[in-house]
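To the wet lab folks,

You asked to see what we're planning to order before we commit. Fair enough. Below is the target structure as tokens, and below that is the sequence we designed to fit it. If anything looks off to you, flag it before the synthesis order goes out.
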């Protein structure tokens, strides 16, 4: 991992808001977050429910969660935010938004983490040592969380059927490994299998509704070659392009 990618994998900050503050994260959390509420309280609202946290609470926000947050303070709300991308556990557990029941000594260690701009080996080891203690305290989310990721991926693929798996994962704010796990669990197929199904449907529509050449259709849909296009079409429909056109003729 190069220095630029590595530095972008972590975001440790202290946030402070005067009295009331609203944040729209409807595009999805770009990181996993472990947070500690220093002052005030907050309410986080997502399609999976509403959770409230107050001073002294440690809480977890999963990467990709789409939510709105409301922060209240008298006179301010302050919290520590430890954002990270590399997750050291099987992500298919789908940990949900939640308060983490940390013992006081673990809470104190989280509060003491440095908020420096760059990550070094000392801080990295210290953070993941604490994270290893936090993870067993987390509760797995419901299967609905997997369905939400799957629905978002299908929506994105329908609009961008030539997308690669890394592009789909980024659009859904999840890792590639989690995306594969979600597809397997929800649909029993891979993201690429769904992508080919969508492309096949579009190819059939173009064959039926236009007189464009097979080569032209293959190129427009991003297939690497006509032979591969024919192979995929045959595998999904059982027919060749000419057979598809013949079977659609209306007398």
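Sequence we intend to order:
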């Amino acid at each position: 991992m190069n220095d630029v990618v590595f530095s972008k994998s972590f975001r440790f900050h202290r946030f402070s808001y005067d009295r009331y503050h609203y944040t729209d994260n409807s595009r999805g959390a770009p990181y996993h977050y472990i947070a500690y509420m220093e002052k005030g309280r907050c309410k986080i609202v997502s399609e999976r429910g509403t959770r409230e946290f107050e001073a002294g609470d440690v809480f977890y926000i999963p990467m990709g969660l789409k939510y709105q947050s409301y922060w209240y303070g008298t006179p301010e709300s302050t919290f520590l935010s430890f954002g990270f991308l590399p997750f050291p556990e099987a992500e298919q557990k789908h940990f949900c938004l939640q308060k983490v029941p940390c013992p006081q000594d673990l809470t104190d260690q989280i509060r003491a983490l440095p908020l420096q701009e760059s990550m070094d080996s000392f801080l990295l080891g210290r953070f993941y040592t604490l994270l290893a203690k936090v993870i067993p305290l987390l509760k797995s989310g419901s299967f609905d969380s997997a369905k939400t990721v799957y629905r978002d991926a299908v929506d994105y693929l329908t609009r961008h059927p030539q997308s690669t798996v890394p592009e789909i994962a980024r659009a859904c704010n999840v890792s590639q490994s989690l995306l594969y796990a979600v597809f397997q669990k929800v649909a029993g197929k891979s993201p690429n299998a769904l992508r080919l199904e969508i492309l096949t449907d579009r190819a059939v529509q173009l064959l039926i509704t236009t007189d464009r050449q097979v080569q032209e259709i293959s190129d427009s849909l991003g297939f690497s070659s006509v032979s591969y296009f024919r192979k995929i079409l045959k595998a999904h429909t059982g027919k060749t392009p000419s057979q598809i056109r013949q079977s659609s003729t209306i007398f």
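Structural context that might help your review: The chain has three domains: 3-137, 143-188, 193-247. The radius of gyration is 23 Å.

Thanks,
Computational group
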